[in-house]
Amino acid sequence: MSVESLHTTADAIIPHPRWRLPVFGDVFGISIRTPVQNSMEIGRQLGPIFERNILGNKFVFASGADMVAELSDETRFAKHLAPGVASLREVGGDGLFTAYNHEPNWSKAHNLLAPAFTKSAMRSYHRTMLDVAGELTQHWDQRVDGTPVDVSSDMTKLTLETIGRTGFSYSFDSFTRERPHPFVQAMVGALSHSQRTTFVKSTALGRLLARRSDRRNVANLEHMAEVVDEVIRARRDSAEAGPEDLLELMLRAARENDPNRIDELNIRHQVVTFLVAGHETTSGALSFALYYLSRHPDVLAKAQAEVDAVWGDDEPAFEQIAKLRYVRRVLDESLRLWPTAPAYGREATVDTTLVGKYPMKVGDWVLVLIPALHRDPVWGENPEEFDPDHFLPERNRSRPAHVYKPFGTGERACIGRQFALHEAVLVLGTILRRYDIVGDPGYRLKVAERLTLMPEGFTLRIRRR
Q1: Which residues constitute the domain of residue 107?
Q2: Residues that bind heme, according to the entry (predicted)?
Q3: What is the pLDDT of residues 263-274, one digit of tens each?
Q4: Domain holding 459: CATH number?
Q5: How far apart (Å, rounded) are the C-alpha atoms in residues 167 and 250?
Q6: Which of 246, 311, 346, 400 could form a disulfide with 77 if both were Cys (CB 3.0 to 4.6 A apart)?
């Protein structure tokens, strides 16, 4: 969709980087590997709305609290599949995350799967989450006072195993493997390819240059499809009744001719979507939270004290997870600074004007740059500072609406939000109760981007408490 009309009025000029070239646009200073952090830096220079032109493709970024509040108005705006997300249709097809608004399978799958994220359903996942967290601690116990643990790698193992078992009753044997599961390797390759080639493939020359990379990506996509097809085939061929999980909901709807039934190809797309989105973002959130805990001993001590007081020595019941209110604030603050799904697109559904200055016609779209929104002045004088007390109840009430968006917005917001939060708080509580964690004092946070965000090269030394 065009964003042309967003910068046509004399009183609403949208700034852009200084050194713009004919044809090539704003190629000076572009970073293919870290486009989110690159755009954050440009936003710091140009303000809460700016434009980037990459080889004739125009992108408008917005992060001002007032702008995002208006973009969250579902009577004027809807989800837009920005190029980076649209490119993931190679992976997820018309799954919940990558479907266009007009595609019928989105609403069918949403209606079909929403019951899997009710409170009663969440309660049924609690046992599995505890079991997988126990496998993590068994793995880490072998490294106490020894080799540092690779945090991002282990959080990825944990969250993949959790969504595999809770959603599809399928184990990836994540903690018994020497190397990451091939599905993870293929997924990382596919996500990285999508990010690196989004801009490059916008021209005929770029598409030609990307052919070799495309061929490698086909192999990754085929492997992911094979893994998912095996998950589905194992369930379908089983003589026993399937457990009440996401996969069973989809297969039973097909068997019983439910009006929300989806075909076999879309079942694959939904499984891929949940396997990718259901673990990639949560593993990043856990990794960032552990990074900040390791850098703030006072916060770490307070979080550990809360876990000790609320959980004691017993295995935590479902209701006790939500009682870790300070741990939850640590997680929320980590997602404020580094929301692991860092941007989303919003498209005008009517002719309108954004904040009374920027005319938008039907189909015009902008990208909400979430890390920049989460550093808006409404967060105080030092928005770069890690402070879990940003999420004290009284501060939450005093802030404007729509300034915290780690799960997106509107009807297309993350369906698995409560699942992710329950899992993440449970895992953090498990780690904090069992270990003292020590980061490498020489490490400086490096954020890897593969459409999602993740600390790179971050390790911890662990000691039993």
Answers
A1: 4-94+103-464
A2: 414
A3: 989 999 999 999
A4: 1.10.630.10
A5: 11
A6: 346
